[in-house]
Amino acid sequence: MTRTADEEAILRTVLDEWQQGVDAHDPERVAARFTEDAVFQGLHPYSVGRRGVAAYYASQPMGMTARYEILETRRLADDLVLGYQNVEFGFTDRPSLTVSLSLLVTRRTDGWYVAHYQVSLLP
């Protein structure tokens, strides 16, 4: 595994807020951690921008939770960090679902935001 404490701290800042929004079933809070032009690929067709992120999370079942584990990080530029995570989504009425999540987070004047979100199911 390759990651630095600084890169991991950046990702945790963004992912902790994302996780809290998912756990609270607050789609607008989740979407607020994304850039206005973020490319978002969950397990449905992709979207661009916060509106698509909010709509995706609004469609998720009540009681869904997220737990993540950072596996890899890379600092691609001073204001750009790549993260590769495992995420386990928990549900109240069915078994949990584990996915792989790749993120690109970028620094804006007021903090770090997700610019690219890509989920994949691995066998």
UniProtKB/TrEMBL annotation:
Q: Where is the DUF4440 domain?
A: 12-99
Which Pfam family is one of those matched by this entry? DUF4440
Q: Where are the transmembrane segments?
A: none
Domain of life from the UniProt record: Bacteria
* Residue ranges the record marks as coiled coil: none
Q: Can you say what this protein is called?
A: SgcJ/EcaC family oxidoreductase
The species this protein belongs to is Actinacidiphila polyblastidii
